[in-house]
Amino acid sequence: MRRVVAVLAAIALLVGPGAALGWAQTTRDPGDEPDRFIRISIDSVAPNTVTLTSDPVVVITATAYNIGDRTVRDITARLERGAAISTSIGLRTALAPGAADQVVTGDYVTVADRLGAAQHKQFTLTMPLRSDPDLPTPTRSLGITKPGVYPLSVGLNGTPDFTGAARLDDAAFLLPVLGVPADPAAADPADPDATAVLPPPAPPIATTVLWPLAARPRLVGGRTGAADQPVRLLDDELAGELAKGGRLDDLVSALEFAIGPNDREHKVADSVCLAIDPDLLITVSAMTRGYQVPQRPEDPAGPTRAGTGAMSAAGWLNRVRALAGRVCTVAVPYAQADLPAVRAIGAAAVTAGAITDPTGIVDTVLQTSSRPGVIWPDAGAIDDDTATLLHDLGTDTVLLAGSAVSGGNPAVTPPDLVRFPAISRPVTAVPTTAPAPSTEPAPTTEPAPTTEPAPTTEPNAATPTPGPPPPAAPDPALHAAVIDVSTASAFAATGSAPYVPSFAPERARFPLGDDSRDARLQDALAAMAWSAVTPLPGYPRSLLVAPPQQWSVNRDEAATVLAELATLFRSGLAVPRRFADLLAQSPDPQPFELNYPQQVIDDATPESLRAPIRDQSARLDTLAAALVDDPQRELDPSDFLAPLRQDLVRALSLSGRRSADPESNDRSAADAAASDRLARSGTTLAGLFGQVTVLAPGGAYTLASEQSPLLLVARNDLPVGIRVRVRIDAPSAMTVDDIGEQLLPPNGSRTLQLPAKVAATRNLVVHVGLSTPAGQPLGDPTALSVRSNAYGKALAMITASAGALLLLLSGRRLWHRFRGQPDRADEGYPTRRHRRTARGHRVARRRATSRQRTERQYPGRARASRRGDR
Q1: Which of 423, 554, 626, 801 has the most Cβ atoms closer than 10 angstroms to its Cβ?
Q2: pTM
């Protein structure tokens, strides 16, 4: 719905219906608009697409809401039509405020005699597409005599209290006319003015549709991949989106029905490609195992309760797996990451998480084989440096909005596939992880036709390489599949959360808040049909439909879009084109360049987030290099740290950074969410470094000697092993040897012996800590109080002097003994003969003493012994 202007009555003498009609023709700039009184909401348009078999009468149902504080009287409305849209940008500019260009107007219909404040009234307007000129009084009609897309609007007049009659509001929308049906009420059915009108002859438009499945990041930041940490979501809204009737369930249900039995020729299935956010798949997969949500959403780290969406998540995931086996699949950047910001940060782990890992995640979770080498930036535009990065990482095709591509013939829209020679690299520089387009096998679900032209057959598609070129050299340039700006903008305006995309031109940027969901959906249908019914010179007969990655339509709206696609196929105005066929065709030979709109820069993630992400990524790399992968344990370091790495990419998400009102787009909520995620991730990372430390001893440590080792206990509370180095800060009187890298087991400790040498006897204080092999400190250092019993140089001198004196005296005694000379040290000591005599006396005394002891104890034995002696 679109408000044009409320023009107050300035001439009090003008009264009656004629005055109201005169005021209805008057408009002025919306910026001069006074307070509003009435708002119109379009409730339905029947038929939403006019075909040869549809009713030749258009019926509009709308509701008038009194949003002011005054009663409005004599409310009338009429249907108005503008000229057919002749340019792609006109699909949006024709809906902008003040863009009224009415060429046909209907009769006024009374809506209500009186409408009080906060009241509303539904009404219906009916007009035939065309009138029969043969009738005596031709009926007023829309005057549509040929196919095309026509802007329609409902204009409403009324008289608010305390003022005069005025044009109070209008609601604009687009009506696609694929063919003008015959007028069954015509007096002469054979009259050319009453027969059916076919669209102009033109080749059918080749159509490819991306069907996005994405959501804003929901996992709480700062969690690790440890088994003892349950999955925690910010809220339980995702459970509602996955349950029956939820947004994600509706998107899957609509596609399931569209490619079901009614799609007998598989035209819809061949033209649709699932575009899936790997962050959503990881979150939903984690939900299937049970999860927790905070009791208070504003406190993600507080008390939790069990989530309610585990069964819905499992069922939804199985259905997506089934769809991935039937249609094409491609991964979008992780969590709708801002790719130029990823490039500016320059962290390898962040780059891999956002760009190179998504394809593997989608293939693993969905058990499918998605299309590699394709990047669809959520912003729809990239700069030159980002394009170079993507190409170096193996990307061969980027999906970009037409406004993000410049060059070629500026008078026409860019073709559907272009190339950027300035970004070309030698073929050998392309990583082997991304096969060249000419050698890439087509997905099993959508085999390429045998008539598909190979990219290498185009003479200007390859960059020369030294030496003779191979017979089938692929085009080394980066390609871009061009998305129509107006069609993409119209689809971004649909659903419960419409927004104006960053790539929309300035003249096509206007608030969407006043438009009803039905009117915005009607505009999207018309934008998709416009190029099919409006063949123009210079416009390719090709259409890539790309709704927003986080699409907020319900099941009925999604089904209506797919029904419109099927209608275009049945009418012969369009033919399905597989996504692989679009990417495999030869690009336009004209050189093209990238255009990075200023609005994309304004909507990007702020510089304030990039420095913390760069710092945390470097610390994560340091920790990851120190962790040890143990094949005997289920948890490996990459899985343990993966959630923290993903947090850094989620902080760069563009989700929530655009709104329905481009003039007052508030990004503070998105910035606050990203900052909170980084803060939690940083706190957790600091805690991981703190879980590896040296245990402080209970008292003073005493060294038994000057070279006794220091005994330390190192503790690792991480669930994975880690390699560490011991950092010693000792006084100059003490030397401690480096023992090199040491391995600490998971959730365990180890005793370390550090060879130490002390040069003085005193009490010392030694500071001991741990670090990663790269030097990043771990845990908190501890201070050891060391007591040493070493005497240093004085003890060494005393010992040496005593030894020398002992050697001198022993040598002198030996010298005299060898020469047979008495030593002066032997004076006063008995000679050898005296020593033998003294020894004999001692033996005789011992024998006499023994005999006396025996006689006292055994007298008879002693007498016998004496007789025997005699």
Answers
A1: 626
A2: 0.80
